[in-house]
């Protein structure tokens, strides 16, 4: 294996490992969940991306033919990371945030979507809010 | 030289997993624990890929792909359970 390729692969692995460590260090450093959601994005983009590109280059040079199946993992993680972050934030808000005290009014008939469950047929959550106001 | 980089990567991922384990045990909220498990899945993918480079076999790639898919599905399922009290409605 040529020295330059080895250097690039090693550099990518080191960068990826460092970013994985930084991302997880944020998990214990940041105080609340909503700031804490910011930390693992480093691990899932640059950290995992660096390691996977290093793997792609390594097998390309080792085997002699180029494959992109490592990009599947990168693509999958990039597609799913926002969805998981959104769902975790919603779960946190449902359990730990009081919609009447901590959130501004939604300025609509309904409240915020996270706190208004969809009921059975014909059930209108906005009626509950109107009753509370009167 | 790749061996040294791999060792560095293994140490980093191991420390990252320990930090996630701390967040998983300490909490304090349910969402923190879900986030910790999600990050642990990402670190496990990185560990599998690094191990695959170290052994110079592509066999661990399938394991990493499975970890990516099941990590996402489990996180979504748990969040959905917390949000709606049911997973498949």
Overall description:
The complex is a heterodimer of chains A (about 130) and B (about 90). In chain A, about 70% of the residues lie in helices and about 0% in strands. Chain A is mainly α and about 130 residues long. Chain A has two domains: about 5-80; about 95-134, no CATH class. The model of chain A has no long low-confidence stretch (mean pLDDT about 80). With about 90 residues, chain B is an all-alpha fold. Chain B has a single domain (about 1-85), classed as Helix Hairpins. Chain B is about 85% helix and about 0% strand. Chain B has helices at about 1-25, 30-55, 60-85. The radius of gyration of chain B is 15 Å and the shape is flat. At the A-B interface, helix 1, helix 3 and helix 4 of A face helix 1, helix 2 and helix 3 of B.
Keywords for this entry:
heterodimer; A: 134 residues; mainly alpha; 2 domains; 0% strand; elongated; B: 89 residues; Helix Hairpins
Helices and strands in order:
The complex is a heterodimer of chains A (134) and B (89).
Chain A: H1 3-29, H2 33-36, H3 39-63, H4 69-96, H5 125-133
Helix pairs in contact in A: 1-3, 3-4
Chain B: H1 2-26, H2 30-55, H3 60-84
| Termini separation of chain B | 53 Å
Give the rounded overall mean pLDDT of chain A: 82
Q: What structural class is derived from the secondary structure elements of chain B?
A: mainly alpha
Helix content of chain B: over 70%
Query: Biggest interface in this structure?
Result: A-B, 53 and 51 residues
- Average pLDDT over all residues of chain B: 89
Oligomer: heterodimer
Largest sheet of chain A: none
Low-confidence stretches of chain B are none
**Overall spatial form of chain A:** elongated
Summed up, the domain count of chain A is 2
What is the tally of helical segments of chain B? 3
Number of domains of chain B: 1
Backbone structural class of chain A:
mainly alpha
Care to count the β-strands of chain B?
A: 0
InterPro entries (chain A): PhaG_MnhG_YufB
GO molecular function (chain A): sodium:proton antiporter activity
Pfam family, one (chain A): PhaG_MnhG_YufB
Protein name (chain A): Na+/H+ antiporter subunit G
